[in-house]
Amino acid sequence: NTMLATAKLLKFTKPASGHATKRISKRKFTTGAKRMLEGKSAIVTGSTSGIGLSVAGKLASQGANVTINGFGKKSEIDEIVSKLAKEHKVKITYHGADISKPAEIRDLVAHTTKEFGAVDILVNNAGIQHVSPVDTFPEEKWDAIMAINLSAVFHGIKAVLPGMKSRGWGRIVNVSSVHGLVASANKSAYVAAKHGVVGLAKAVALETAGSGVTINTVCPGWVLTPLVQAQIEAKAAKEGISIEEANASLVGEKMPSKQFVESDFIGDTVLFYCSPAAKQLTGTSLPVDGGWTSQ
Known about the structure:
This protein is an alpha/beta fold. 44% of the residues lie in helices and 19% in strands.
């Protein structure tokens, strides 16, 4: 945010008497006139709703041009693009890459580079879920979760990294999950993929250390997204309880705070990783989980 400040500059003078006196003068100056990410360009996968949309908005609010990606009705996506561009006075574009397909990820990166000149920030956010015991877990669901939740992260990083290294600046932020740090029953594919994202980030951090490129991972607890809403509804149906009861049960079972993490909290965390304060943070995993992993 732009902040105008008037500073009173204190100047010390030494008159003929030899005693130091204080002369106060006023000078106007501007701090923060240039937004933190002005001139930078970002890709946020899975950003037509939920966490990804919040992240896209936060990056745009600091001056970044953003390519959003994901599924949805054309009219709704057009509205998102228009609203973000108008509200934040940046360029917003959309690319409908199916990120389970490596060629489409490469096309997403090429599209953004053509539109904005570079990809400075990559936020790997898209994810899917399926809940089932491992011995009855559908193999096609396993493959789909691995393709979107893990392999797509690899392909995205591989596509943007050469440009980032050549420019000496880049920020890669993965939105993993608390399930990248701990496990829950019946989520074998999701847990495996999200742990893989955390490990991948550590390896890439070592390969890029000192290059001006950083890579870090945010690990949210329960965030009330469409993905989690579906789990709440499934829990309610299975246990014969109301949506409200399932909601409270789901959060209270894992998170000591007994409160959902808000999407904007994740957006702010991603923004922090893109800030100068995080210049020496790379390979880290930050849980935003209401105390879940402290138990």
